[in-house]
Design brief:
Distance between the termini: 215 Å
Order of helices and strands: HEEEEEEEHHHH
Strand content: 15-25%
Shape: elongated
Number of strands: 7
Helix content: 55-70%
Structural class: alpha/beta
Largest sheet: 7 strands, mixed
Strand order of the largest sheet: 5-6-2-3-4-1-7
Amino acid sequence: MENRAYALITGVFVLAIAAAILVWANWLAGSPVQRDKYRVVSLRPITGLNEQAQVRYRGIDAGRVTSIRLDKANPNRILIGIEVNKDVPITRGTYAQLGMEGITGIAYVHLLDDYSSREPPAKGRDGVPEIHLRPSFLDALFDNGEAVLRDGRVLITEFTKLVNEENRERFAHSLAHLEILLAKLETQLPGFIERTDERVQAWMNEKNRRNVEAMLSNLNEATRDLPALVRDARALSAQATQLATEATALARESRGAVHDVRGTTLPKVNALADSVARSARRVGELAETLERKPDSLIWGHDRTPPGPGEEGFQ
């Protein structure tokens, strides 16, 4: 009987402990969090990212990674399934980057937003919204480092080709000539400087200084007269413009006068000239007649002898 009572007490105690553990676990878990499913699409390696890794939105814990797999239709794409809290504002401007947890090498998905659009993200073929993964600062740094290393290798290779034996001999020969040139300059340059200084001093004597001062004075006077010269030039230009206008008007009037002369005066002058010519011919005939027969001025012209068939014809 005592054994049965002991067993009953032990069983009740175990059940109480189990119930207490369940209540404590439920209290720790709190109310269940509602989350939405999204898919992060990456064309880059995702080293260090595992399932159940954290998903953060601008540094705030916002969900978990649920799956990681390759796209069967395009193996270049890595599909990362995530669950994000419903209160996180995921839009078409939201993008993802991989972050690292200190020096552990464990990666997490960091969601950021460039606020380019407030529309919901585009959905994939199966209706799950997709978020594209962009390279992080470290990724860009590593990519640029690789490019710099490649360029460095190319530069070192080309430099090695440049400094071959023949070019090294030429470089040494050039250095030897440069050393000789420097030695000549060291010996000849002081004398050249002294001669130049003497020539400058000789040129800058009192007479030349006075000439320079006079030239500068004349230049200043010419500069002072320049505004007046400009005003005179403007006045002359205005007068020339007025003269051109008057000449244009005079030319128009001249064209009208020429037209009148051609249309009215010239015909009259031509008729007068014809009349004068006829009168001159008559005067010439009269003078010729008086020269041949001066008495005709008194007796008049002789009658013309009758012709055949006229009265008095013989």
